[in-house]
Design a protein that fits this description.
A hairpin with a 5-residue loop joins strand 1 and strand 2. The N and C termini lie far apart (57 Å). The longest helix has 20 residues. The protein has 7 helices and 5 strands, in the order H-H-H-H-H-H-E-E-H-E-E-E. It has 2 domains: 96 residues, no CATH class; 54 residues, no CATH class. It is of the alpha+beta class.
């Protein structure tokens, strides 16, 4: 009989619900806007969380999401104006790298402590095109929520309930 050593997980830091609800990319946006030092250094998960909250307070939830969405949009395209738009959005590349690195470190620390974060996706209904083909695309549910909050528009969508199982939703509620 062999002895197996049980390794205890590190204690999870206290994470406010507002921070848990944010995807890691939004953490990086909030960190960029915070007083987080750009230079490297060892920082605790609790300090990183405090900087995220500070950046979130400075920018507001909608602006943090908007900057993340703009970054994702610029990263998905490759047009001549994208590089200058990226530089306007993130004028300090070393600070952005540091913010992304801190967000990754916090995500890893939370996972190591057993904190699991999952972000649902939904199918956005784009309707039928001119040849009768129906189109929908899978997107983060948070993008739909924030779009509706900022525009007041209702997005026609579906929720994926598993392979072949789809629930029709109307403004985030089961129809």
């Amino acid at each position: 009989m062999s002895a197996v050593q049980q390794l205890d997980r590190p204690a999870a830091p206290t994470v406010p619900a507002a921070v848990l609800a944010m995807p890691m990319q939004e953490w990086a946006v909030a960190l960029y806007a915070s007083d987080m030092p750009t230079r490297r250094g060892d920082h605790t998960p609790e300090q990183t969380i405090a900087w995220i909250l500070q950046g979130l307070e400075r920018l507001g939830e909608v602006e943090v999401w908007r900057r993340d969405w703009q970054s994702r949009k610029l990263g998905a395209t490759n047009t001549p104006g994208d590089e200058s738009a990226w530089r306007r959005l993130w004028p300090k590349p070393s600070r952005l790298r540091r913010a992304v690195g801190q967000a990754f470190m916090l995500s890893g620390a939370l996972e190591e402590a057993g904190v699991r974060r999952r972000f649902p996706t939904v199918l956005v209904d784009h309707g039928t095109d001119e040849i009768g083909q129906h189109w929908a695309s899978e997107v983060p549910a948070r993008d739909v929520e924030m779009h509706e909050r900022t525009t007041g528009e209702t997005v026609p969508l579906y929720r994926l309930d598993g392979p072949g199982a789809v629930t029709v939703l109307v403004s985030g509620r089961a129809a």
